[in-house]
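Translate sequence into structure tokens.
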Amino acid sequence: MKGNISLGRVFGIPLRLNYTWFIIFAWVTLSLVLYPLVEPPYPSIWQRIILGILTSLLFFASIVTHELAHSILAIRNNIPVKEITLFVFGGVSQITKEATHPRAELSIAIVGPLTSLALAGIFYGLHLLLAGTQQILAANLMWWLARINVLLALFNLIPGFPLDGGRIFRALVWYRTHDYHRATRIATKVGQGIAYAFIAGGIALIIFAPLYWIYGLWITLIGWFLHDAASASYQQVLLHDALTGITARQITDYDSPLIPPHLNLIDLAQQYILPTGRSCFLISLGLS
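Result follows.
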């Protein structure tokens, strides 16, 4: 994913922030500024801005925790994790290879929603503790975070591949059929069907409930993202299978000219690109 900002490492896993994340961050913050978590009279505008930013950061900390749970369990199953990226639709753990057994796939997929539910329980407990005090604003903030983590868990449990629910569904089909490719194909088709349902529902909301057009647009975009993600995940599996067992020697073009490493771009264009029309060349690593 292009346009990422490095935020360091968490448990040795690189954490990155995509520029699109600022869209949802601004949306959540603005929503909490315009619609505070308390009854009137509202706090001052600066207090609401600070509260909105704090709540948004805690919300995304919850997403990072969700993704960390996936990543840590993947590493424990000897599956390397390249990085965790936050973006406009939440977060994603970039796992470098698929699980080799349905039980591992199931455990890695289900730990994310379970972590979100655990966070919801923690925030709800804090809400109960603060509700009996004068900290009404803090209590309502904890209640909001508890609800949003429940919604995060429920959304991820939707059986739309590559969501956690889709991966859980694939693991169950894989366990039943003992056929990873068939399970992936079925999970992908189900995921695409759910994506189309999101798109249709979002468009219907825009048309028949124009006052909620922003929600309809958001649902449509989520559906579009799920459809593309499901297709890309399946194509990645097909590509991996197609390239399995193929060596670099088998795909090397031995007719490609060998050029010295010190050659400048002007000479490269004049001596090799223009006369041959080629766009790829092998660079000699020998001393010149």
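Note: The chain has nine helices and six strands.
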